[in-house]
Amino acid sequence: xxxxxxxxxxxxxxxxxxxxxxxxxxxxxxxxxxxxxxxxxxxxxxxxxxxxxxxxxxxxxxxxxxxxxxxxxxxxxxxxxxxxxxxxxxxxxxxxxxxxxxxxxxxxxxxxxxxxx
Length: 117
Hints:
Oligomer: single chain
Strand content: 35-45%
Number of helices: 3
Number of strands: 7
Shape: globular
Distance between the termini: 60 Å
Largest sheet: 7 strands, antiparallel
């Protein structure tokens, strides 16, 4: 019984550590923050309008490789209901329930915009 108690204690004590592995972008309910990126909150914009909502955030990293950013979100976002739409030289986008999520990668900055097209 003592071993079971110790095992259960160690098992449940590990949950906070496991839960802390995935960070999310502030301003979004379920947009994961790519490891190595930091959100610059002073440049964030968010508002609701009759036609839909608009959210814009800036993320920074030492060097934002557009392909690496795109690959990360191609793997993460479909699990959250987003469907890949377009890819450009500096941008790529996803759609979900009438909203568009547009990523623009430029140097060490990634701009993410959520808007109603």
